[in-house]
Amino acid sequence: MKIKAPKIGYFLKLAFNGLFKNTVMTLSSIFVLLSCLVIMGSFYLVIKNVNYNIEKIDGYNKIVLFVERDATEFEVLEIGDKLREIKGIESAVLETKEEALEKQVSQYAESAFLFEMYKDDNPLKDSYIITYSTDADVNTIKMNIEREIDQISKLNVNMEVVEQIQSIKNAVAIIFSWLLILLFAVSLFVIINTVKLSVFARRDEIALMRYIGATNSFISTPFLIEGLVIGAVSGGLAYGLQYLIYKYMMLGLVGQYEVFSILPFAEVKEILIIGFVVIGIATGFIGSLISLKKYNQENA
Amino acid sequence: MIKLTNVTKTYPNGTQALKNVDLTINDGEFVFIVGPNGAGKTTLTKLLLREEKPTSGKIEINGYDLIKMKNRKVPSLRRTMGFVFQDYRLFPNMTVFENVAFAMHVIGEPNRIIGKRVYKFLKLVNLEEQAHNYPYQLSGGEQRRVALARALVNNPQIVIADEPTSNSDPVMAYEMMELLKKINDLGKTVIVITHDIKFVQYYDKRVITISDGTVADDKAGGDDGEN
């Protein structure tokens, strides 16, 4: 007998029927997935805030470039243009040797007379204070600067601080990646079991479908749609809940202590909503798929 | 056509449910299968639906070789048969209409055809008025008729009814048998598995008696001629 194309409308109807008729299963799946997503999201936000505060440490993402003394004024300005073209560099601010001397004078106001003699023969050099993006690799930037600019007298990078911060950031990233994998695995495991329970609860219905001549894909499709819907709903709810937690816990409580700077929620909202919905849908779908594949193999 | 050749079924626990059964049921026949509990009727049904495979022997139904066929072909085989379960097995969360329509959705029929055809078969079993009721709102006899409509709606070549008269009052039971006879008159093969000897005698059709896993007797009906 010819098997005709399935009708998505009918599958949707069956899926939503299933979701509403098995409210306990549906709600428990949503609750579990929502919890896992919020835990993942909370870790992500804590880590983001840790990085945000680390990056605020003075001089972390700054390089000072001293220009050779024999460079002309035009050449000095040209260096500035070249620097700004290098990938990863956010700004390059020129500090002329005159400005540097004035800074010294004002810094040591009581001994200002000592600098008088240098006014006509300034021993200081023109310099650029370069700020680079916190995502960029400082070694690559350093290499690019050295390649592009000829008249470098000295390039000052606080490698010790950079390396320490980088190693903290790396450690945090590794911990977060493992946590993410672990929580994803936990969510998947729970979803697989919830779908398995749901399939088990409806095994008579499924057996009957088989007697009538339903194919495995006909039987599985509504369950997969249920998984997708549960995933998407959990993702959406997790975003809302995460927003409230962040607003009241982080901004409200932690934010009162001036030691910490709190990353504004607006800066992470896009990644959070996309992440939650994608992870939610993926977990719901993959969980249902694994569960059904196993069931169909056992009951073929 | 249904053809069993030297079919034996032994379960893993050692129970031999069927022993060297040879049986042929031609297209358009009306057959009663009778026998005491544990005789092998249920196993025979399971083999026909390809829910189980025989331990040895050969089964052919409507051109399908049930031994060689791949699992993914089983739905196609089952679509050539309509099965009426003893316990009806309706979907409790679907209306009468939806229960019958479900069988048509399974084979991917378009909605406009489903609507017309479902009502045609509900009319046949005299349940069109109940189309929007749920199974729990129906009597046992009515539920069985819904199950029959669902078994028939895809125009199967073979209809198998398991104990179609059990738990029914005499009038309901008679009506059910008359419906099955009417279906047979339309050219369908009808197999009735029953304990109800009075109907077997009344209709005077072919009777296959299964006993202790073998075909103990195969008697042609008065209005069928020789089998």
Encode the helix/strand succession of chain A as letters: HHEHEHEHEHHHH
Q: Any low-confidence stretches of chain B, pLDDT <50, length ≥5?
A: none
The gross shape of chain A turns out to be: elongated
What profile does the largest beta sheet of chain B have?
6 strands, mixed
Helix content class of chain B: 25-40%
- Helical stretch tally of chain B: 7
Computed structural class of chain A = alpha+beta
H/E order of the elements of chain B? EEEHEEHEHHHEHEHEE
Describe it.
- The complex is a heterodimer of chains A (300) and B (227).
- By secondary structure, chain A is of the alpha+beta class.
- Chain A folds into two domains: 8-55 and 165-298, no CATH class; 62-157, Alpha-Beta Plaits.
- Chain A is built from nine helices and four strands.
- Chain A has helices at 8-21, 23-54, 73-85, 97-107, 138-148, 159-201, 203-212, 216-253, 269-298, and strands at residues 62-67, 89-95, 127-132, 152-157.
- A four-stranded antiparallel sheet of chain A has the order 2-3-1-4.
- In chain A, helix 2 (23-54) crosses helix 9 (269-298).
- The model of chain A has no long low-confidence stretch (mean pLDDT 82).
- With 227 residues, chain B is α/β, with parallel strands linked by helices.
- Chain B has a domain at 91-154.
- Chain B has helices at 41-48, 74-78, 96-106, 111-124, 140-152, 170-185, 197-203, and strands spanning 2-10, 16-25, 30-34, 56-61, 64-65, 81-84, 158-162, 189-193, 206-211, 214-219.
- In chain B, the strands form two sheets. Chain B has a six-stranded mixed sheet with strand order 6-7-8-3-9-10. Chain B has a four-stranded antiparallel sheet with strand order 2-1-4-5, with helices on one face.
- In chain B, strand 7 (158-162), helix 6 and strand 8 form a beta-alpha-beta unit.
- The interface between A and B is medium-sized, with 22 and 26 residues.
